[in-house]
Description:
Number of strands of chain A: 0
Radius of gyration of chain B: 26 Å
CATH class of chain B: Mainly Alpha
Distance between the termini of chain A: 42 Å
Oligomer: heterodimer
Low-confidence stretches of chain B: 1-21
Largest sheet of chain A: none
CATH topology of the largest domain in chain A: MetI-like fold
Order of helices and strands of chain A: HHHHHHHHHHHHH
Structural class of chain A: mainly alpha
Mean pLDDT of chain B: 85
Low-confidence stretches of chain A: none
Distance between the termini of chain B: 39 Å
Shape of chain A: globular
CATH superfamily of the largest domain in chain A: MetI-like
Helix content of chain A: over 70%
Amino acid sequence: MTAALHRLSRVRWYLVIGIVVLVVINGFPFYWMALTSVKPGTELFAFPPRFITTAPDFSGFERLFETTNFLTYAKNSLIIATGATVVSVVVSALAAYGLTRFPFPGSRAFSTAILYAYTFAPIVIVVPLYGMFREAGLINSHLGMILAYASFGVPFSLWLLQPFFRAIPGELEEAAFVDGANRVKSAWYVVFPQALPGLIAVSVFTFLLAWEDYLFARVLITEDELKTLPIALHDLYNASLQDWPLLMAAAVLINVPVLIAFLFVQKYLVAGWGAGAIK
Amino acid sequence: MSLTRTTTTGAPAVNTEPRASAPRRRMPGWFWGALLLSPAFLLVLGVIAAPIAYLVRLSFTDAHAYLPKFSSVGFDNYAALLRAPHFWDSVRTTVWYAGLTVGLQLVLGVLIALMLHQRFRGRGVVRLVALAPYMVPSIVVALVWRWLLDPTTGAYSWAIDKVWPGSEPPNLLSPNLIFWSLIAVSVWMFTPFIVISVLARLQTIDPSVVEAATVDGAGAWRRFWHIVLPELKPVLYTLILLRFMFMFTKFDVVYLFAGTGTEVRTLPVLTFQRIFGEARLGSGAAVAMVLFVLLLIFTTVYLRTLYREREETA
């Protein structure tokens, strides 16, 4: 009895230390980022560093909006990420429905091919894509970026969605047919709501994929008015201003949609990831 | 809408017919399957398959980013690569980078997943913090860590000074050490992928088996080694392959955090530099082709492992 109790308390002790270390190592950089964004200049390079600030100073944010086109970049990022998400989710939901409800010769091969596409690295694609987009006049266009990110989202989304669609029993749909629904209605009212957790998970993944990408945006966008946030932030850093409050203010704001997406759909995210990412 | 009309001919009568579950169709099922699949097919074909074909062609030419015309040079680009010492340096750097980061991610990821699998107060919040680094754009990760590790003003110098007062903290962003800092930052950023995947798998292990072992007197280590680890093994194999592929071709965080110095010039960075630094499209395409062929091999092995795992668990 005491031995068991002793063992239990020892395990708990390791657990507590482990969790504290994890939270500090993972959390501190975020805290430091947020803190730096509101640090007054006098505290910025203080040594020893200040770990809290008594007089938060929002001038970093002010400079960000006054001296850079931050809102334009944010708008570009939002348009591109939303567009890519809509295209990718619609396309992959249709395909997942097709694959699970109307298997046809070659649909299995297509599934495998999609998996190959899922493992494709952006760096391999970006070289020829640059050449092709240049010839097609898609450089510096929202449409080009949306198509590029959507096609990167599709293989992953389709792979992740298939188990969700497969898990929906065919009887459910047949019941809807008996009630007089046609296939479109039954898909819309019966099948898609059932697959909602999967659809939400892939929407979030695709949005984040487009929101945080650096490589494609760097290569396929050259005009300042069309830049996305990651590119803009890197260029601000390279402009050698090294205005850390301004840079960290931008970093904080870039994370806002990420955080919202994360908090809202955490439940679906884990379920979706568990169901699709590996298996 | 056209789908409506063709799938259920004579729709109004459907209600009276119990066999409505098999409505008379003008088109066979495979037609609808192919139709629903075609947008996905076209998108993947257009933005992934076609570029690969174009890449193969480019890699045999002397294409230049700012000159419209190019001519075929046969295998010259590849021959030049194989002869260039810096190409082999890049291969070595890439293998080390991928190998080290994957190994560390795996060990830490499993440990953290086991920890987060325990029941404790505030677990939801801790899980959120544990996964956060993976969700953040790589430019943010790169900048925040450059700011933290800044040799003169970073919080890191202060921490070193606290632990060893008066010591001169090494400059972690210097060419000597940047590779190792990059390893640390990459592990920090990508370990959550392992955590969440292992966590999902842990949840499928029958808790009564673990409980029974506890009652039989098996300690935590023995329970892990004999019950949990065998359950995790298949998922760990696929994770190793998948993460290795991803780290092998990782560009963003490598370039943004560490730049293009020879210490960190992995194959993806070399590709980027060839194309967008030196404008040598053909030569860069050859490097990308090397990556492509390696990916093809990895993916084939990955899929085999994945299907085998599926058969075992089914």
